[in-house]
Write a structure and sequence with these properties.
Layout (H helix, E strand, L loop, with lengths): L4 H12 L4 H10 L10 H13 L3 E7 L7 E6 L1 H16 L7 H8 L5 H31 L8 H26 L11
Antiparallel strand pairs: 1-2
Helix pairs in contact: 1-4, 2-3, 6-7
Protein name: PadR family transcriptional regulator
Pfam family, one: PadR
Length: about 190
């Protein structure tokens, strides 16, 4: 069975302690895991149901706190823990292709005039600058709190990737602006 990133995140959380799905959702948002995994309440509940169907998590029972809806608490099974570890080993072992939108937009940018591309890349660069500043602040905060780096290493990685992306985009804008990167619209529409 192929696990989705959301299912793997659920297994990881349930490996720490039993939880109900709403608690999982809250913890993921608190830890900013939504920057790594697309987290929506509906998809989270669906992922938990699939994991239970596949025997990777099991229900420990249902409770109903006063004034609250009924909540089912889950824990990871031994099979679930092994599936999580297998997924992590595979992810760390070799590069896996991903299909983000930005590289495709770059591949198709030759359909636009160079000055339009420069303007759009400048907007992208601005939004990237805001994200980098936010990530730098988050890394500084965990360092101040002296949290072990093993628990936030992905933030350091993502920051390095965004900084490299920022440098590349700034250089590309410069190359387009100076004409070092010749630009020809591919199509006339």
């Amino acid at each position: 069975m192929k696990l989705t990133p959301l299912a793997v995140s659920v297994l990881s959380l349930l490996g720490q302690r039993p939880m109900h799905p709403y608690e999982m959702y809250s913890v993921m948002l608190e830890r900013h895991e939504d920057a790594l995994v697309k987290v929506r309440p509906g998809s989270l509940y669906h992922a938990v149901e699939r994991l239970e169907r596949d025997g990777l998590v099991k229900s420990l029972g249902t409770d109903r706190p006063t004034g609250r809806p009924e909540r089912t608490v889950y824990e990871a099974t031994l099979e679930g823990h092994e599936a999580l570890l297998d997924w992590v080993r595979s992810g760390l072992r070799q590069w896996q292709p991903e299909f983000p939108q930005f590289p495709l937009a770059l591949a198709l940018a030759n359909n636009l005039p160079a000055d339009t591309v420069v303007g759009l890349l400048e907007e992208y660069l601005h939004s990237l600058d805001l994200e980098v500043a936010e990530m730098e602040e988050a890394v500084a905060e965990v360092k101040r709190r002296e949290l072990p780096e093993a628990f936030w290493i992905e933030n350091d990685y993502l920051l390095a990737v965004r900084q490299a992306e920022r440098a590349w985009i700034a250089a590309t804008i410069e190359r387009l602006t100076t004409g070092e990167l010749p630009w020809h619209k591919k199509h006339q529409f």
